[in-house]
Amino acid sequence: MSRKGRGKRFLFVCVHNSGRSQMAEAFTRHLSNGAVEAESAGTQPSTGVNPIVVEAMAEVGIDLAGHYPKVISQEMVNRADSVFTMGCSIDESCPATFVPSEDWGLEDPAGNDIEHVRRIRDQIKAKVRELLRDCGNGDP
Description:
34% of the residues lie in helices and 13% in strands. The longest helix has 21 residues, at 114-134. Strands 2-1-3-4 form a four-stranded parallel sheet. The chain is globular. It is α/β, with parallel strands linked by helices. Helix 1 (20-31) links the parallel strand 1 (9-14) and strand 2. The two termini are 21 Å apart. The chain is built from four helices and four strands; from the N terminus they run βαβααββα.
């Protein structure tokens, strides 16, 4: 359901916008070589991106150092062709209750060591690759 005149635009949402959604946004931009626009946001944004997530992404050549958590807005939702929630454990602030979306059901990297965050990172990368294949963008 891409809008005429531009490529797809995806919005990735989680509660704090400090880990999973940041990784999904970054992988989408990276793996699509800019052919797909991506944003990420949260319902209760944290004060910064999880430093373990920043480290795990740096290991695969993606720099999140300049990224910061953002609060979701109706404008972001309106701009998106598709919205993906990451899976959340805080029912009252779960983005899936506010926004029509597909939930990826991913574990939150908060409080986990680098090994665990790497596994979550790799799951997100695989999901983004599949998404980009399905919409005809990115590397196969």
